[in-house]
What does this fold into?
Amino acid sequence: MNELWVNGVRHALEVDQTTPLLWVLRDHLNLTGTKYGCGMAVCGACTVHVDGAPTRSCVTPLAAVAGKAVTTIEGLSADASHPVQQAWVEHDVPQCGYCQSGQIMAAAALLAENPAPTDADIDAAMTNICRCGTYLRIRSGIHRAAELAREA
Amino acid sequence: MNRRHFLRASATSAGGLLLSFHLPALATARPFEAAGEGEEINAWLTIAADDAITIRVAQSEMGEGVFTSLPMIVADELGADWSNVRAEYADPNRSLREDGVYQRMGTGGSRAVRHSLPYLLAAGANARERLLLAAARRWGVPAGECKAANSVVTHNDKTLRFGQLAAAAAAVTVEEAPLKPAAERTLIGTSQRRLEVPAKVDGSAAFSMDVRLPGMVYAAVKHCPVIGGTVKSVDAAALASAPGAPQVVKLGHAVAVVADSYWQAQSAVDALPVAWDNGPGAGGDSQAWRAEFAAALDEPGVVAAEQGDVGAAFAAAESTIEADYFAPYLAHACMEPLNCTVHVQAHRADIWTGMQNPEAAMAVGAEVTGLPAEAIYPHNCFLGGGFGRRLNTDWIREALVIGQQVERPVQLIWSRAEDTRQGFFRPMSALRFKAGFDADGKPIGYANHSVTHSILAGVRPDAVATGIDPSSVEGLANLPYAIANTQVSHTIRNTHLTTWFWRSVGATQNAFARECFIDEMAAHAGQDPFDFRRALLGAEHGDTLRVLAMLEEKSDWGRALPPGRGQGMAVFEAFGSVAGQVAEVSVSQSGDVKVERVVCVLDCGNVVNPLTVEEQIEGGVVYGLSAALFGKITVADGAVAESNFHDYPVMRMTDMPVVETHLALAGGDKWGGVGEPGLPPAAPAVCNAIWRATGKRVRSLPIADLDLSWT
It folds into this structure.
């Protein structure tokens, strides 16, 4: 039996310890907001927070998050009120939207660490892939989210 | 929660998207039931008592914005309060049963807005007339004296909200519903944020991989590494003690494993010993193919377009230039790997997948199950990227075959490696150009021969009976530049790989090669590339000339740049629109390329939603630059070498140029496409800029494979 804390809720699971966190979230906990993109930590669609740090859940075995707090897109805010989520709506960032849970989690982690990132900071931190090409709106969305967080 | 909906976005926010699926068992009883709540005014929309309007979208939302732009068309004609409009998918099965009520649902060719416009305006007008009639009857006044706006019908000082009229409006019959004059439109042409974005920022947007059904199991698949090969034998016993009760399903060209969870299924299929018969493609090698395509350029092709006598022109020419271009196979690499959930039962089959062609899904469903097409229920989802790949049905067919054997709902997920390697690529192409000039540097002869893997040969073989695949000569056979003597010829050369429509199709490689060679011609003639093109564009290309004029101005064309930096331009007409771009690049002395800025001018005639048009241009540029800079699918021993984003790299944030979009709209009756036209000029504009920065011509893609160092 594995104990897993996700979005503040404790789960007891009968799942093999080597199972990637991504599939535990999606298939065992029905938290499908976290996406499968590559399975080898190169695209970032599966990004979640583990004790606040952006983490690619597709290569993170369940055993590695024992006793840690996992936050997924569903737990980022109760009502889509996180500044990044608000800014994403305001700037109409998503196109197909598939990579955006991961983008938002990566952006939220960046802003938690660096409340006023420069374009260079954003380039360095935001390594997630978007095939629709929303990068410029992601960048402006992050600047807007930083503003919203300061205003709050 | 309404019991009719067994799966929906779990946390729709107010005004957000409501995406619903029918519970199969209940839907059996009422298969036509609308998912939207409220009165169905006509097949396209429902209005609820609280005035919420749900508009049905019969095209696929894959990021291009149809869940917003298409409802805008209906809502404008209807006189709806846009803040209370929601979107949901139209039901393809209903369309089949009701004589194509949702028209052609396949989404491709940058057609969604321009083809839907007439019937969506008509749908909105019909609903508006019903509401006006219902109000007029209630008040005892002529309908012609009533007006509809902001979801309210008014007559002098009397008002009724749409929600109060919906039931009566649904019951009236409308003979004729004239369209509003275009000048009275209030929504079309205004920038509106996407309706579904709230669901795409909180994880609730339903992609097909997010479908969860009671009793559902998961399937993973391993295809023969060589496309066209088959399974020789499978050692299913090797999985006897594997977790998740894995069950092996043979698919002929592939093996699937079904298990309780996806990870168990994928782990099992990875471990499963399979012997393959690699089939006729076993020796395939993309280096050898490249040499064969180049050799075929020396042979005569089939003439696709001809004018004057190009041979005589070259003989008489003061000078000639010649160049060969090459473009590799490319994968679509949608962010969401292909996946499909099916529930195949004795009397019906349900299909949940992100699809660009629901009609084809019904046809495949009928073919695989033996059920009538009317018993096949495709449930479209948000597509995690489409780019043409999801116009196909290969993965849907696999899911149906698996679903027949497991007799439970099953979700098939392709791994990223399968998605990258298993075909339906943008074709490989080799292109040769020759131009002859008179003593004044004026081009008097132009010859082009392309050798391309045919897409249509595998789709509609009759379309290539002449030896020319029309999609392969897009922009080549219809050369816009007036040169007295031209010959455009083509050769189809296919390998064992499968090819398919890839965002902007033949225009991808043809715009690259043609517009780069035109740049070579301009340079040879000692002319500015804008001026050179203008001199060859007749009055019938007024839209292109207007695009060029705005592009030259907005791009600061010709501004002084330091060594290693350059501008390049290209223009291309496709999908009914003209797009011109100027790229500015910097190239380090060691040859590293950074695209700094791309200025795009588009003439798509008219626009429904300028915001999503701008987003599509940005997206087209990024998709085109990913291919130009990095993209190639290569083959050794018959098998595709690339497997994932580490060896099939694409643009990331750090690679992004500034992208500026400007519209030079022709207006009038012209409605051009938007999803694809932004892509074709990106590669040639960048390659021409690289030449100005380094003195080196880029004649082969991807750019990352070339030595662009300079001193």
User: Anything to note?
Assistant: The beta strands of chain A are 2-6, 9-13, 47-50, 53-56, 69-71.
